[in-house]
Amino acid sequence: MKVTATSLTLLITLMLLVTSFAGCSGLSNVNPNAKLVADRDEINAGETVNFDARESSTPDPTIIEEYRWNFDDGSTKTSKQGVSSHQFSIPGYYSIEVTVVNDQGGTDIAYVSLFVNSPPILTFDVSTVIRTGDSVIMDASDSMDPEGGVVSFAWDFDITVDTNNDGDPSNDVDSTDSITTELILSQSGNRTGSITVTDDKGASNTSSWSVMVISRTFRIVWEQQHVELEWSGYLEQGQSYQITDIPHSSSRMISVNSTLVLARDILPIMWPEDNFTMAISVPSSGWNIFSATAQDNITQNSSASIVRDNMNSYPESGYTITADSADDLLYSLLNEPGQRFGQGEWIWTITADDCHPDIPIDDIDPDQGNDWQLVVDFLLLVPRISEIGI
Q1: Out of 205-214, 284-293, 336-345, 348-357, which region has the weakest mean confidence (pLDDT)?
Q2: Which of 61, 113, 195, 236 maximizes the CB count within 10 A of its CB?
């Protein structure tokens, strides 16, 4: 091939032009430089991670047009901005990538790694039906962390009651044992609580539980019983003696007979007999009464009596009834409206009104006072409560 001077000059000129354009444009490498960071590298399942690729760059004068995200869980996304957020619901290890694309079609890829922690596996047993007064057996000891971490337990015994007084009844911690029997339910009805298991990375699993509390069945038999009380003493004229007693609080009162008897004056010189007064006060029932001693026959001791019958009515006996406990049942039986007469404190007051009716000897009363004896007989009905169907 023959090369003339003219063709050689043309070839050299073209090579210079190509070299000149390449140097002026700077487009020998148009690929961007991708960079990616995440605000967290370890999360619990269901949480969200924020990703940031804004530190990525591209050669001048090119510009980044888009960011193509791949979250390694089947989800992808394209954005104009270099930030993105994503929620990860499935535990495992992830490699998240972003592809940075500029206006010249140049690309680059950056990666970050992420670990998504699985929540603990919650397994528990709770008594479904118990009787009042029994313990609820709660066992969550088979719960575990799939990654082998340590788990902790939080039992809330009643999701309707705010035991820690923070305004939220759903976050109480009444027990931290894996197995607990310390919950004793004394009222019939349904009780709902919750159990939360948390692993060493803060992931938790919560479930609610319910137990039906059924009442107990009792047989009621009212037994008749006499209770006799006795006091004695000596009083001189103008003196008083007060007796306070609460007779058999676990009973229903039917009748009372209080008899005050004075010691007899044997010698005629000490006649006539002294005069005493017996008073009874039952504040809870508003009953106040008194009686003065009298001698109906010279051969008998001077005495005073106060009798009251039918203080309360006779109830039905030998029947069955349900209640949360024997104590609750006893309380309701003894506090039935209209059947509480005589409950509480009884007060007897013995007063020596006149101990100077005697014939004086040398102007001196031979008998300054008198011995007395008070006998009180109560007729009571005592409820005998026995549980059946245990």
Answers
A1: 348-357
A2: 195
Euclidean distance between CA atoms 69 and 53, whole angstroms: 10
Instruction: Report the alpha-carbon distance of residue 274 to residue 352 in Å, rounded.
Output: 8
Query: Cβ atoms within 10 A of the Cβ of 176, count?
Result: 10
How crowded is residue 42: how many other Cβ atoms within 10 Å of its Cβ?
12
Hey, what CATH topology would domain 125-214 get?
Answer: Immunoglobulin-like (2.60.40)
DSSP result, 371-388: EEEEEEEEEEEEEEEEEE
Q: Do domains 17-117 and 125-214 have the same CATH topology?
A: yes
Element at 25 (helix H, strand E): helix 5-25
Mean pLDDT of 114-140: 96
DSSP letters for 122-181: P--EE-SEEETTPEEEEE-TT-B-TT----EEEEES-TTS-TT-SS-GGG--SB--SEEE
Q: Does 12 score more than 50 pLDDT?
A: no
Identify the bridge partners of residue 211 per DSSP, sorted by sequence position. 191
- The second-level CATH assignment, the architecture, of 219-388 is Sandwich (2.60)
Q: How far apart are CA 229 and CA 18, in angstroms?
A: 132
Under CATH, what is the fold of the domain 17-117? Immunoglobulin-like (2.60.40)
The DSSP code sequence of 245-285 is: E---SSSEEEEEEEEEEEPP--SGGGPSPPEEEEEEEEGGG
Q: Read off the pLDDT band of 297 (50, 70, 90).
A: confident
Prediction pTM value: 0.67
DSSP, res 119: P
Distance in angstroms (rounded) separating the CA atoms of residues 64 and 58: 7
Yes or no: say if 143 and 197 are a contact pair by the CB < 8 Å rule. yes
For the chain, the domains span 17-117, 125-214, 219-388
248 pLDDT tier (thresholds 50, 70, 90)? confident
Question: Mean of the pLDDT values across residues 13-27?
Answer: 40
Return the residue matching tokens 């609820």. Answer: 136
User: ∠ CA(184), CA(196), CA(138), 5° rounding?
Assistant: 30
How far apart are alpha carbons 355 and 352 in whole angstroms?
7
Distant-in-sequence, close-in-space partners of 275: CB < 8 Å, separation ≥ 6:
292, 293, 302, 353, 354, 355, 357
Angle 238-241-243 from CA coordinates, rounded to 5°: 160
